[in-house]
Every structure is written in structure tokens, then in C-alpha cells.
Design brief:
single chain, 461 residues, alpha+beta, Helix Hairpins, Heat Shock Protein 90, five-stranded mixed beta sheet, 10 helices, 15 strands, 54% helix
Length: 461
């Protein structure tokens, strides 16, 4: 399914909303026109009946008569309607009528509700060739007799007046709808103009991100840009910057991995080539195999570290209540033989600190830090303490140079001694995934590591 442009989407939705409003408006106006025309027509024919009654009564002795006239109904562009008038007695005697009313007898509806002087009535008469809307009133002649005066107009004239008015309203509504549609297109174009320009620029500079970044900065600072488009441009620029930084780190990481792999592979390949050049004694073959085994072990170790670093983004952290003293004793016990082999004296001071942390991840951090002391520090003593939800690991080794301290947590950064520089990177990331922090405190001798856990709880003891 092809995606629509934002401009067409806004136009369609605005047009639909306005069309619905116009239709509702036309229906309401049509209903009001129908009601108003009928109401005003009733008032008009009753007023004509009153006028006829006043004229007849004032000149009663000269004879009863009504006027043949036409009238225009109260509506827009209404036709001239034929008027019907009649004067009659309650007993049905017709005293006078207009020439167009050829009635010799009147139906019951002409008398219903017209029994008292001054009473009025509206009704529909279907007894003649035309359906009439009649308004009647009861008056008294100078001799005390009762007269009924009625005026009427054809229903078809009223309906024609109503439909003509509705037709005019519909035409005006159609014109309004056309204006609304063009307005919707204009509004949609105005709203999306900056966004469309931003989109076109992103497509145009797709292969030259450095120029896109510069253009986005100018667009963001442009006085013509709206707050929304300026914010969007700034966000895109920030995302591009972060993406570029991530790509740079990834490229450097790949290059460092290739370098780290090449060194033991080159050594391994060289050892094997030399061993195969001529026949050798068993002792010589053994020596070559032992050297190759060392290089293979380096490759295995590097592969394990790379796998561990890659899994940092995938593996979930399972936080639980953790007693740090127990984990410290377990970790030291698992490294006891290596510590003893390096003649490193270990002292432990712990409290009953409880934290919310992942037991496996925290154990890997402690193992990495202790392994660094064993393999690289040259220390003779190691002190591990636990206070207020933080673990402190301090040794009396040779410490680190300023260059190494500045690149502690960067994979494959320049380092002193063997190793790949991945252990501390992994440890820091594991602490961050637990909402914790791994930091190195400056010390006059050796290293002083601190593992801080922010999710703490009070001891139950």
C-alpha cells in the first residue's frame, strides 16, 4: 500500500470535517427555513383575514365583500402566491369570496374551533382542486351577528417557497464547501511546506551526511522555521551526530578486533610454517605445539571476551535482593588458588549491606577486577571492603599510567601488559545496566576501585 503525503492527509481530513459541518449546517438551515416559512405564512394569512374583517365590519351596511389580490410569501426568491379569501356565517352561509374560490359548501374543518368571537384557527383544506393552508378568525358584525373571515394560500406555493430557499442555501453551502476545500489545501500546504523542504533536503543530502548536518543546523536556526520544524531539524541533527559517533566507535572496534586477531594468528601461522619446513625431533615439535597452544589460548580468550561484550546488549538483568558480603566471600574463594599462587594476601571487611542487583553480573564484575589485580598489578596485598551498599577493592600494586587511566573503559585502548582491554569495558557496562557505577579513585599506590549500587535497601539485621 502506497503511503500518502502528509499534505494530502491533512487536506482529506480537514475537507472531510468541513464537509460534514457544511452538510449538518445545510440540514439545520433547511429545517429552520421550512419551519419559519410555514410559521410566517400562517401569521400573514391570519393578518390578511383580520384586515378583511376590519374592512367589512367598518363598511358592513354597504355590503360584504373581499378582495382579489396576490401576495408574496416571506422567503428568499419566493413566488407570487394566489390568495383566497372568504366571509361566511357559522351556519355555512357564504357571504362573499374571491373569484378563485368556487365553493358552494364548506367542510367541517372550516368551523372547528371557531365558536367564540375573537377565536382563530389554522387548518389544511383538501376539499377543492388545490390543497389550501387556511387561517380563520371569528368577528361580530354591527348587528350582533357572527361572521367568520378566512384567508388561504395554496400549499404548493408554500412548498415552492421553502424549496427555493433551501436551494439557495444549498448553492451557498456548495460555494462554501468549495472555498473550504481550497482553504484546506492552502492550510495543508502551509503547514507542510517547511516539513516538505526538510524531507527533500534529507533525501538530497542522503549520501553526504556532513553537508546535511550543516544544512540542518542552518534550518534549525532559520528565522522562518517554526518551533516544530526547528525542533525536528535539531533532533535529526542530534540523531545523525550520535549515529556517526556510533559508527566511528564500531569501525574502530572492528579495526581493533582485526588487529588483536591478527597478532596471535600471525604468530600461530609462523610457528606452524617453521615447524613444517623440515623434520624435527619430538622435543622440537613439542615446543612448537606448546607455542601454538599459547596463541590458540589467546584467540579463545579474545573470542570469549568479544562474545561477552556483544551479549551485554542482549542479556537481561535480573535484579534481586543481594547480600554483598556473601558474594564477596564467594568470589574470593573461587580465585583463592590464583591469589595464593601470586602470593597476594587478601583481607575482607564487610557489613550487612543489602542491594538490588543481578547476582551473576555483579559476580562477573568482581571476578574481572580481581583478575586484573592477579594478572597486571604486581600487588602483594588486596583489601576488599563493603560499606553502605558499595564495594571497595584496593591493592598495593604498581598502579596505572595517566594514559591508561584516561582510556580505562575503551575497548582495545592502549594498555600496559597482556590483555585486550575488554574486561573493564564489560565491567562498567554491567554496573550501568544495574543502575550502578564503577569508578577508579586516585591513590598514591596501587588502584582503588569502587562499585556503587544506587538501588539499596536497609539491612534486615
Amino acid at each position: 500500500m502506497k503511503n500518502r503525503s502528509l499534505q494530502s492527509l491533512i487536506t482529506i481530513r480537514l475537507g472531510a470535517v468541513f464537509t460534514f459541518c457544511v452538510i449538518i449546517f445545510t440540514a439545520i438551515v433547511g429545517f429552520l427555513v421550512h419551519h419559519q416559512v410555514h410559521e410566517q405564512t400562517d401569521a400573514m394569512i391570519l393578518q390578511i383575514a383580520r384586515t378583511e374583517a376590519h374592512g367589512v365590519i367598518s363598511e358592513f351596511d354597504a355590503g360584504v365583500h373581499v378582495h382579489d389580490t396576490a401576495l408574496r410569501l416571506p422567503s428568499l426568491n419566493s413566488p407570487v402566491a394566489e390568495k383566497y379569501s372568504i366571509a361566511y356565517r357559522p351556519d355555512g352561509e357564504i357571504l362573499a369570496s374571491t373569484s378563485n374560490l368556487t365553493r358552494t359548501e364548506l367542510s367541517k374543518s372550516w368551523f372547528t374551533g371557531l365558536s367564540t368571537i375573537g377565536s382563530t384557527q389554522f387548518f389544511d383544506d383538501n376539499g377543492g382542486p388545490k390543497k389550501l393552508r387556511v387561517g380563520a378568525l371569528v368577528a361580530q358584525d354591527p348587528h350582533g351577528g357572527i361572521l367568520i373571515f378566512a384567508s388561504a394560500v395554496p400549499h404548493e406555493s408554500i412548498d415552492l417557497a421553502v424549496w427555493r430557499t433551501i436551494f439557495i442555501v444549498a448553492l451557498l453551502s456548495s460555494f462554501m464547501l468549495i472555498v473550504v476545500i481550497f482553504t484546506s489545501i492552502l492550510v495543508a500546504r502551509t503547514i507542510t511546506e517547511d516539513l516538505q523542504e526538510l524531507c527533500n533536503s534529507c533525501l538530497e543530502f542522503l549520501n553526504v551526511p556532513e553537508e546535511l548536518d550543516s544544512w540542518l543546523e542552518r534550518f534549525e536556526m532559520s528565522p522562518k522555521a517554526t518551533i516544530e520544524t526547528s525542533t525536528l531539524a535539531g533532533t535529526i541533527r542530534d540523531l545523525i551526530t550520535r549515529l556517526q559517533r556510533t559508527l566511528d566507535v564500531q569501525n574502530r572496534f572492528v579495526a581493533e578486533v582485526a588487529h588483536e586477531l591478527r597478532t596471535p594468528l600471525t604468530s600461530l601461522n609462523g610457528e606452524l610454517e617453521i615447524a613444517l619446513r623440515k623434520d624435527r625431533t619430538a622435543a622440537q615439535y613439542r615446543e612448537f605445539i606448546e607455542n601454538a597452544s599459547v596463541d590458540a589460548a589467546r584467540l579463545v580468550n579474545l573470542a570469549e571476551k568479544l562474545l561477552e561484550a556483544a551479549r551485554l546488549r542482549i542479556d537481561d538483568i535480573h535484579v534481586e535482593t543481594l547480600l554483598l558480603s556473601d558474594l564477596i566471600h564467594e568470589t574470593v574463594a573461587s580465585n583463592a588458588s590464583l591469589l595464593s599462587e601470586q602470593k597476594i594476601n587478601v583481607s575482607i571487611e564487610t557489613d550487612t549491606s543489602l542491594v538490588y542487583a543481578d547476582r551473576v553480573a555483579t559476580g562477573r564484575v568482581l571476578n574481572n577486577l580481581i583478575a586484573n589485580v592477579i594478572q597486571h598489578s604486581g600487588a602483594k596485598s588486596l583489601k576488599i571492603s563493603c560499606r553502605d551498599g558499595s564495594i571497595h577493592i584496593k591493592d598495593d600494586g604498581k598502579g596505572l599510567s595517566l594514559h591508561v587511566r584516561n582510556n580505562l573503559f575503551i575497548p582495545f585502548a592502549q594498555r600496559e601488559g597482556p590483555g585486550h582491554g575488554l574486561g573493564l569495558y564489560i565491567s562498567k557496562r554491567l554496573m550501568e545496566k544495574q543502575k550502578g557505577q564503577l569508578s577508579l579513585t586516585p591513590s598514591s599506590r596501587g588502584l582503588n576501585w569502587t562499585c556503587t549500587f544506587t538501588l539499596k535497601r536497609k539491612s534486615d539485621a
